[in-house]
Amino acid sequence: MDIREKIGQRLVFGFPGTTIPAEFAALVREYKIGNVILFRYNIENLPQLARLCADIQELVRGATGRDAFITIDQEGGMVTRLPWDAVNVPGSMALAATGKPENAVLAAEITARQLRGVGVNSNLAPDLDVNSNPMNPVIGVRSFGDDPQSVALFGTKAVEGYKNGGMLCCGKHFPGHGDTAVDSHIGLPCIEKTMDELEACELISFRAAIKAGIPAIMSSHILFPNIEPNGVPATMSRTIMHGLLRETLGFDGLILSDCMVMDAIRRHYGTAHGVVEAMRAGVDMVFVSSNADLQRESAAAALAAAESGSIDARELDGSAERILRAKERWIHPAEPESAGHAEDFAAAARMAREAVTAVRGRACRASEKTFFCGCADYRMTQASNADPEAKAFPEYMGARFGAKFAVCSKDPDEKEIAELVKCADGAENIIFSSCNAHLFRGQLALAAALAEKGVPMTVAALRNPYDLPLMPENAALLAAFDYSRDSLAALADVFSGGDCCGVMPAAL
Fold first, then answer.
1. Most distant CA pair in the chain: distance in Å?
2. What is the C-alpha to C-alpha distance for residues 212 and 471, in angstroms, rounded to an integer?
3. What is the pLDDT of residues 339-356, one digit of tens each?
């Protein structure tokens, strides 16, 4: 390969829409771009996704002579890119709540089968972050919990499942995104931990995953001033990417960047500059997931840096070789027959049911005299998705039990709260759903006002369980961890008198 081809193998670009834009195709041909990332906006349904993946492979093979890594963020739960007719497994914290590490294996195997069925060959999961900060705005239920050993156990089981399923998987976000109060999509987080502190918490799950043979690890756009004093985030830090990950932890797989269009990089350092510095730091594959102008600028900057020697020629060769070896190992033809099996849908529903956790008291038994209230699902972060076709919790439960319901906004004001409380008049019990109420305090105020009706009340947390300690003292508390169709069905079973068997994977 020449220098242009080697740089092209190290770049991962995305595009808008459900077909390949001409501008993107031209960029791939000009700069020999070897890899593509897909998001929810690229996908209509499974047949369309399969056609798109085939078109991507045709484009990249024609431009580079080699297969493309087609990558996706399919963590399960709140980070779900596959369409809603696919098998979408519970998220990480929900899996941990089942108390069964074997469920992490199965969920990864199901996901791998689903992805390989349509031609996707690389998945940016599992999340290995230890969610030690309950106020974390971007990780939360994407993590297996707040205990490093539990995260390591479930994380390595997920790695096992992906490997069983023939899917390249990627642990993230090294060296850890669990103790942040800032979302790196919109800001630049800083974690002021020492190396000893990282070793005692964040690095435990990554060490375990490396020992388990994880093939790829993703960087985080986070400042670690006690580890890297030069004012650059982990993605751009040679101390962290090469020194810590390669040399100290002995990782010999692919190092991937988080997206370089995220504000943590774009606003503070510039995307193109960040791409070059990430490569210099030791990142093998750098993601510029959107923005054609920034993609072109980044490809040109990386090529110029390689041609000038600013990117070391030996390291360029080493990265290219690692990428090509990984492609030989993990890229397979699409296997349509492997996906969409009835038993996989059933397994996903079973795991969602096993995740429902009773935190306090016993849930109200629902009837036509129950009042259901809560907000609709919504996109909580730039990393997450919501199901636009699914019914909101109150609507779903109202239809299921023939009961009165009301859908509130995610952060209701005093006027809306007063109207919703009036809607509860005459109810024999109230079942309220929260969705990150610890961040949207209007939900907490609404729950408190509903509790003053003086009838039995249950609160079900549909995302982060950290909402629950903030809820009224007289309410029974449930954690479901996911706002999904399977989770709603699981809760409906509980409200019909079913027992909860989940275990809380995070301290409340």
1. 76
2. 40
3. 778 999 999 999 999 999
**Torsion angles phi and psi, residue 206, rounded to 5:** -70, -40
What does the block give as tokens for 74?
């399919």
- Are residues 49 and 176 part of one domain? yes
At residue 184, the pLDDT reads: 81
Sign of CA dihedral 123, 15, 1, 258: negative
Domain housing 449: 356-495
How far is it, in rounded angstroms, from Cα 238 to Cα 352? 41
The CA-atom distances, in angstroms, between 24 and each of 18, 20, 110, 119, 398 are 13, 7, 31, 20, 46
The CA distance from 233 to 238, in Å, is 10
| 263 in the same domain as 167 | yes
SS3 71: strand
What order do you get walking across the sheet with 69-72 strand by strand? Answer: 254-256, 216-219, 168-174, 122-123, 69-72, 35-38, 11-13, 286-288
Given the residues 127, 147, 258, 377, the one annotated as active site: 258
- Give residue-wise pLDDT tens across range 80-108: 999 888 999 999 999 999 999 999 999 99
Read out DSSP for 2-16? -HHHHHHHTEEE--S
Cα separation of 432 and 212, whole Å?
Answer: 41
User: Is the same domain home to 361 and 315?
Assistant: no
Task: Identify the CA nearest to 121 among candidates 360, 417, 316, 333.
Answer: 333
Same domain, 220 and 302: yes
Element (H, E) at 405: strand 404-408
Cβ contacts of 55 within 8 Å, gap of 6 or more: 19, 20
Any catalytic annotation for residue 258? yes
For the record, the structure tokens of 287 come out as 């993601």
Do 303 and 445 lie in one domain? The reply is no
How many residues in total does the chain contain?
A: 508
Which CA distances in Å does 499 have to 13, 265, 272, 356, 402? 46, 47, 54, 9, 22
Element of type H or E holding 398 = helix 393-401
Short-list 434, 427, 372, CA closest to 405? 372
Contact predicate 170/162, CB 8 Å: no
Q: With contact defined as beta carbons under 8 Å apart, do 165 and 106 qualify?
A: no
pTM flag (> 0.90): yes
Helix (H) or strand (E) holding 493: helix 485-495
